[in-house]
Amino acid sequence: MSELSGPRRHAVAGLLVLLAGVACVRASPPTTTSPRWSTDLPTLRLEGDTGITDTIAPGALHRAFLVRQGPWAVHVLDIDRAACWSAVAVKGAPGAVGRTKTSALTASAADQGTIVAGGVNADFFLFDPPGVPTGAHVSNGNVVTGPGARPVFAVDQSGRPWIGTLSISGAAVSGGDSLRIDSWNRMASNGLAWFDARYGPVVDTLWRSIRVVLSDRRGTVQSIDSSRVTTPIPAAGGVLVLGPRAPEALRERFVGAAILRSQFTVSIRLLPFQPREAVGGFPILVRDSLEVPGLDSAGAPNFAPVRHPRTIVGVAARGRRLLLITVDGRQPGHSAGTTNRESAAIALALGATEAINLDGGGSTAMAVARYRGDSAIFEVVNRPSDPTGERAVGNALVIVRNRRDPGRC
What we know:
The protein is mainly β. Helices cover 9% and strands 41% of the residues.
């Protein structure tokens, strides 16, 4: 990394101008302190760093600093898991469809006995259906959208973070015939997909797909359909969807089993483990304290080697620390954004041993809790690049702590 700038206090304070408080919720306030000017932030591990550190609550810090090299305006939620903080995946409404601003998603987590430190936007998302995450979204152990080929940031049942690639193991069994399930709450154009009610009330399917609706937990075939664009998902059952490019032999087996036996037993699970929470991202930036090879060619030509606003999640201190990072971009004179390799360098400089890139561009946003009495206002602390301000996104990664029993992690 190049040497960092040493801006005067008023210049750095300008970086911290907080944008529109978007939500106010009732919560038991944690202990807070005022922001403090610091010229010694050893955990940042950045030469010549000066910046502002704001203690949101014990074990939860918001840091902001400028880097001359970019220039980059960087915000960091630095979280100590030993203080009972954990990460959760948040959608704006039940099911996979729908878009909501990061600040509102962060505020929505401040219920059910939790204190919220802040959050960032999470996965890339589809525009049709709108807001469906590109990768896996797992919330409280429930698979809202299943994994694809891209990696995820996940936490296990104990809250320990993990960055890697999830897959599924599943089958639809009818009599002696077992059909492999290729995806879960996600279309498989060449194979068989399983959609359950966690995805939402209906499934939008591709033309020429074949849909077998199972009405109950016993797998009773309710209907076989290939004509409608959308198919309702029974609350107690689900829908098996065979993609339009599946082999003809598989189509014959699938339809034949549904007609002759009128029942499928569906079994499905995630591998290599069942996370408690997960959001998708791309690509993995840092592995074992080293930049991952090939970052310049990951994704489209205008994605990896071009500077954009970025959102990053890093893991440090053997999993004890979580680093949620945003880098502003597309704003000359304020912040240029980073390439994939520059994102990796920032994550490494902050102490990350593992890191993954989340959605960026106009989606990049960080909301931080500001407690006033017994309520919290969630404010966007970075500068989103869209001319209209903060963008509605598919999901968010939010840092929470159990208010009812903070002593149990």
